[in-house]
Amino acid sequence: MQTKVPVRKRSSLKAKYKQSVLRIESKVIKCPKCEMTYASTSLNDVSMHDKYHNLHLRGRNWSSNWGIVVKDNVGNLPKSKRIPLSVQSTRSSKSNGSGNEYIAMIRPNATAEVKATLEIMGIVNNELNAPHDENDFWTDEKGQGRAFVYVKDNKAVAVVTMEILKPGRGRWMVYETKSIVDGMRPNFTLGISRIWVCRTQRANGIASMLLDVAREHTIYGKEVNKFLTAWSQPTESGGKLASKYNGVIHKSGKLLLPCYV
Ligand SMILES: CC(C)(COP(=O)(O)OP(=O)(O)OC[C@H]1O[C@@H](n2cnc3c(N)ncnc32)[C@H](O)[C@@H]1OP(=O)(O)O)[C@@H](O)C(=O)NCCC(=O)NCCS
Ligand SMILES: [Zn+2]
Fold first, then answer.
1. In this predicted structure, what is the pLDDT of residue 74?
2. Cross-strand partners of 257
3. Which CA distances in Å does 196 have to 42, 76, 158, 236, 237?
4. What's the pLDDT at 3?
5. Which ligand has the minimum distance to the alpha carbon of residue 200?
6. How far is the C-alpha of 228 from the C-alpha of 210, rounded, in Å?
7. Does residue 150 belong to any structural domain of this protein?
8. What is the mean predicted confidence (pLDDT) over 145-169?
């Protein structure tokens, strides 16, 4: 009798322990705002989600020393007056602006700003399901491209990476069907490798402004026409932006987007 008591106790404890483990393991949830799936019972997962969530929704903290300001006081202009930026005066300077909204170009040799931008690109590539290793063209000093961020209230809320295209990469895409037009090899000068705006700042014209400024500053001293700027596999929302920004109507009546491979 006496010997059976501890045995019974042990086995009931074991059963309880098993139950609680099962319950804990099943707490994998998907955040409805940032769509990250994570285990709410894992401290590591919770802190990773917090970081991802904040960046995804509100952007990344940005030091006022990072980047060359290529467009200052952007947010002070009403949306209707913001486009095209090419006809407004642009202050190119090595010092940063005082306004709380500006566009900065990333310097490849400035480690801290490159690292911060790569962190944003991690989020962007996750959202786009895109490869994470396509940054050399803007991180290398001799790279054929540039990255730009839109800074608002000390946060980088949007990013664009632009690459200079070699001939032969241009294609036309039919907007409706997403199919590539056979046999056409248009020459485009710039490729929009990635463009992303944090969730809370979308639909304010930020992506369009970033593109305008990026076309002006990717090639030193040469503004590239928007119709010579192509998209890399546009997403659903990217396609809508592209159709408004630089889609062209073909004589067949179809809307075509400039793209590249
Ligand atoms: C695509 C994206 C960059 C657009 O950024 P944004 O700052 O909201 O775009 P803008 O405000 O400059 O849009 C300009 C115009 O494009 C069109 N447009 C852009 N996004 C649109 C969307 N999701 N739905 C419908 N139209 C859209 C609209 O006509 C808009 O003008 P309007 O607001 O005056 O109607 C943003 O939605 C995003 O980051 N998406 C996730 C990442 C992504 O898909 N990137 C594209 C890769 S190709
Ligand atoms: Zn979230």
1. 85
2. 173
3. 29, 21, 5, 13, 10
4. 37
5. 1
6. 16
7. yes
8. 97
* End-to-end CA separation in angstroms for the chain: 79
Residue 85 within a domain: yes
Both tokens assigned to 32: 């409805």
Q: Quick one: how far is CA 162 from the chain centroid?
A: 12
Number of domains in the chain: 1
Nearest atom, ligand 1, residue 197 CA: 39
Residue 215 lies in domain: 60-260
CB 112 within 8 Å of CB 66:
yes
Tell me if 185 is assigned to some domain. yes
Tokens read off for 244: 């408004």
CB 220 within 8 A of CB 250: no
Q: What is the pLDDT of residues 185-226, one digit of tens each?
A: 999 999 999 999 999 999 999 999 999 999 999 999 999 999
123 belongs to a structural domain: yes
Tokens of 87: 């006809």
Eight-state DSSP code of residue 124:
H
Mean pLDDT over the full length of the chain = 86
Q: Whose CA is nearest to atom 39 of ligand 1?
A: 196
The residue ranking higher by pLDDT, 65 or 18, is 65
Which CATH number goes with the domain that contains 191?
A: 3.40.630.30
- Select from 197, 229, 241 the residue to mutate for testing ligand 1; criterion: most ligand atoms less than 8 Å from CB: 241
Residue nearest to atom 23 of ligand 1 (CA): 237
Ligand 1 is surrounded, with C-beta below 6 A, by 127-128, 195-197, 202-208, 231, 234-235, 237-238, 240-241, 244
